[in-house]
Amino acid sequence: MAKASGEAKLRAEADGCTRCPQLVASRSQVVFASGSIDAELMFVGEAPGATEDREGVPFVGASGRLLDDLLAGIGISRDEVYIANVLKCRPPDNRDPRADEIANCFEYLQRQVEIVEPTVVVTLGNFASKLLRNDDTAISTIRGRPEICQIGARTVWLLPVFHPAAALYRRPNLELLRDDFKLLPLLVSRGAPDQKQAASGSREAAGDAEASARPDSEDDPPQLDLF
Ligand code: URA
Q: Is there an atom of ligand 1 within 6 Å of 119 CB?
């Protein structure tokens, strides 16, 4: 109940947000989040697009349909996860989020993580990965490697993956994205990392996590005990 009221309060606050005048002028509505506040798995995308802006729900356009399909591939439905974005408002003409907008909106995302307390946060694409890892390394370099990461007061497994739009745009990315999604059930099953009192954005490699979580082939199951 505390979670539900905490999220509802934060959602109401974000709904009335006026921190970014250009986004306030261009948005139809704030797109806060969707899914379960009890989720162990949280996804963070970039920003709402036209369909999301119209419907008020993240990832309901073409990228969202692919996200649903990727989740179905690992036996999870969208109702079981929590989905949010770096920006809660659609940038005009789908332009990239600006640094000042990302900074203005970051507090909402951190508080969402603190309320939901996920075990795993999946960053979809460059904007979410760079923000939550506090590092500028490109997604193509870091994708598929779980890390332990501090987001606000919460310590999570963070898994950076390609944005679904990048997989729609470039088909070879889709296979990599499907491979990376296969890591998620194992990461969730490990439970949250030890909770630390570290600075937000601090992170450490997950040791053997990647090697032990990634099956060599479909027939070769992950080695749980090495994690
Ligand atoms: N829809 C969203 O909600 N976020 C994205 O990053 C892309 C599409």
A: no
Q: Domain range for residue 31?
A: 2-190
End-to-end CA distance of the chain: 34
What's the number of domains the chain is made of? 1
Q: Both tokens of residue 101?
A: 């907008």
Residue 109 lies in a domain: yes
Q: Tell whether 104 is covered by a domain.
A: yes
Mutation to probe ligand 1, out of 43, 59, 163 (largest number of atoms < 8 A from CB): 59
Report pLDDT digits (tens) over 137-170: 999 999 999 999 999 999 999 999 999 999 999 9
Question: How far is residue 154's CA from residue 157's CA, in Å, rounded to a whole number?
Answer: 10
* Residue 85 CA, closest ligand 1 atom number: 4
Q: Is 37 in contact with 115 (CB distance < 8 Å)?
A: yes
Given this model, what pLDDT does residue 225 score?
32
Is 208 contained in some domain?
Answer: no
Q: Is the pLDDT of residue 221 over 60?
A: no
Among the listed residues 22, 29, 19, 95, the one whose alpha carbon sits nearest the alpha carbon of residue 57:
29
Task: Return the best residue to mutate from 44, 63, 68, 161 for the ligand 1 pocket (most ligand atoms within 8 A of CB).
Answer: 63
User: Residue 217: pLDDT band by 50, 70, 90 thresholds?
Assistant: very low
CATH of residue 68: 3.40.470.10
Contact between residue 31 and residue 56 where contact means Cβ atoms under 8 Å apart = yes
- 224 CA → ligand 1 middle, Å: 32
